[in-house]
Amino acid sequence: MKNYAIVLAAGKGTRMKTDLPKCAFPILKKPMIKYIHENIEKSVIDETLVVVGYQKEVLKDVLEDRVKYVVQEQQRGTGHAIMMCKEAMANKRGTTIIMLGDMPLIDAKVIDKVVNYHSDKDNDLTVLTTKYQQPKGYGRIIRNEYGNIEAIVEHNDCTFEQKKIKEVNTGIYVVKNHLLFKEIDKIQVNPRKQEYYLTDIVSIMKQAEYRVDAFELWDSEKVMGVNDLYSVSIAEKYLRNEINKMHMLNGVSIVTPETVTIGHNVTIENNVTIYPNTYITGDSVIKSGSKIGPNTEIHSSLIHNNVRVQHSLVFDSEIRSDATVGPFAHLRNGAVIGERNRIGNFVEIKKSIIGDDTKASHLAYIGDTTTGTGVNFGCGSITVNYDGINKHPTTIGDDVFIGCNTNLIAPVNIGDRVFIAAGSTVTKDVPAGALAIARNHQINKEDYSKNLITPKDDRK
Ligand code: UD1
Ligand code: CA
Predict the structure, then answer these.
(1) Domain ranges, ordered by start, for the chain
(2) Ligand of minimum distance to the alpha carbon of 55
(3) What pLDDT, in 10s, does the model give residues 332-361?
(4) Catalytic: 362?
(5) Which GO terms describe its molecular function (predicted)?
(6) Which residue, of 168, 170, 372, 444, has the fewest CB within 10 Å?
(7) The CATH number, out of the four listed (2.160.10.10, 2.40.110.10, 2.40.50.140, 2.60.320.10), of the domain defined by the range 229-436
């Protein structure tokens, strides 16, 4: 018999007060629903059905055709969402786990544990519960004098005494599929909220004398529900800590880890140090010996060994071994920085391949450029790659010295061992070994100030 999952993700997420449907909202740049789906994939579940409604296309764009969908046009409650699955599910024999689309911290092991518990006990319905010291907002688990689950009461429907109960409904239920769809229509609309509460299935099945049981989970943080932007921050904090911990145990030193965010697909070798306020995201790779940060963002970039990057932005780029970048450098769009380069203050490098042992230490823009090795870009060097319509390339040979405040008007080729005088605007190719001077001669007009400035004595 098969194991099915139904994930409820049709709601708007009113308490979020944002435009995106809640289950598509990103946690560490990944939509919430994706976490749930990835863990379902790793678990004993064979087939997944997702209930979508509010902005359904956004959720479908996330999960594409990896799951089946049912549409709940009007969101009339979690019970109503399950009623919408009748046509797709009612004739199936097997076990169904119902999950909510707003629990991004869920883990495949939890899914397996509760499904196995349910089958081992031969239960008809198993509710996954947990305890919170601050259970506000969650449905409370009502147990009878024998300790068996009787019902779930939503926070706002609880009596004063019931509100003191710490055991809550996680929103995960495991149920014999055919019984779920036999009983689901018995759920009545909640008079206060005018919604059909799935939680009522517990008392309904209990009254019909099915085997209804509760399974309590100890690691309660894994099933937290995200309802507003404050809980988004709590979920992110938890995940950030989990990822950082994994890297630290692998030999990555992270200074002030609560300020460091590392994405799920980042690879970091041991002997790397990450300093505060640093974001490393995408499929970035950081090799051994490198020191990254503080105040640095690295996205989808490859950082080789013993590189130092500080106070800088590095997007879709590569930095080769023993180079230093920053402070305040910006590498982007396919910049490749050669070994032992020195890329310093306020230098932007875009879509350029920079040879080994090159320096651009201060105030430069290098775009669409290929350089040889041992090049020195003086302060204020600019490759003028854009004529207002098209981008043009610059090539620079080995051991070139580019004087301060030089414009290289692209397309232009600079040969090996060229020396360019400071302040030049180079519009023509320069052959190897030449000195290029492309600036006006200086003229000094002596005593000029006399004609220009009114002598102090004549002022009124
Ligand atoms: C729900 C449970 C509560 C439990 C808590 C755990 C109910 C009535 N309450 O409350 O007992 O403690 O989760 O986190 O079930 N959804 C739909 N269609 C709808 C309504 C909701 O698909 O018509 C989806 C939402 O998109 C969401 C999920 O169901 O992903 C849960 O809805 P939400 O409004 O967050 O329920 P809670 O109030 O948190
Ligand atoms: Ca919720």
Answers:
(1) 3-223, 229-436
(2) 1
(3) 999 999 999 999 999 999 999 999 999 999
(4) yes
(5) glucosamine-1-phosphate N-acetyltransferase activity; magnesium ion binding; UDP-N-acetylglucosamine diphosphorylase activity
(6) 444
(7) 2.160.10.10
The protein residue whose alpha carbon is closest to atom 8 in ligand 1 is 197
Tell me which residue of 291, 259, 255, 247 sits closest to 272, measured CA to CA.
291
| 146 carries a ligand binding annotation | no
Q: Is the CB of 51 under 6 A from ligand 1?
A: yes
**pLDDT bracket for residue 202 (50, 70, 90):** very high
Q: What is the pTM of this model?
A: 0.89
Mean pLDDT of 298-327: 98
Residue 197 assigned as binding residue: no
188 pLDDT tier (thresholds 50, 70, 90):
very high
Under CATH, which number does the domain 3-223 receive?
3.90.550.10
pLDDT at 451: 78
Please state the rounded mean pLDDT for residues 239-259: 97
